[in-house]
Write a structure and sequence with these properties.
globular, mainly beta, two-stranded antiparallel ribbon, single chain, 174 residues
């Protein structure tokens, strides 16, 4: 690897959950139809990651009190191998093979339906992390590698999406 390439890896890895995954570093993906969606269920708010507000890269973010009727369009990216096994904002270990995601302001955990607006594919994921912090004016969610496969966005790295919170609605505090 060249010095420039190595420097880019260090810079991007230090950026948190903001880097698009590296398709050449992961095993061949299963068929999207073989990947099961996360199943929404009642869960207590995460003990970590549900602060009222926080700062990241010089920006202030306010965590929503509730996921009730959240519905937004923007860009999704995905994260994979480089973050596998690292702690998420909720304190859980990130598993790129689970149907999870990172969102800057939804309560943790929240279940959302992500629709790839370029191809119509959908995936239900459990938001358990904070991000994306790269290009926060357009990116609204970072999905796991498994979710990216299901959504058909691994090759492109990003895609336009609709993200809609699902019941049971989650709150930031009990």
């Amino acid at each position: 690897m060249s010095r420039i390439g190595a420097a880019m890896v260090v810079v991007l890895a230090g950026a948190g959950c903001t880097m698009v995954g590296s398709p050449e570093l992961v095993s061949p993906p299963p068929a999207p139809s073989d990947i099961a969606n996360a199943v929404p269920r009642v869960e207590p708010p995460a003990r970590q990651g549900n602060m009222a507000q926080y700062e990241q890269s010089g920006r202030q973010y306010h965590v929503m009190d509730s996921s009730y009727l959240y519905d937004e369009r923007g860009v999704a990216s995905w994260y994979g191998n480089d973050f596998h096994g690292r702690p998420t904002s909720s304190g859980e270990a990130y598993d790129m093979n689970l149907m999870t995601a990172a969102h800057r302001t939804l309560p943790l955990p929240t279940y959302v339906e992500v629709t790839n607006l370029a191809n119509g594919r959908t995936a239900i994921v459990r938001v358990n992390d904070r991000g994306p912090f790269h290009d926060p004016d357009s990116r609204i969610i970072d999905v796991s590698y498994a979710a990216a496969v299901k959504l058909g966005m691994v090759g492109s790295g990003t895609t336009p999406v609709r993200v809609r919170a699902l019941e049971p609605w989650q709150t930031r505090v009990p």
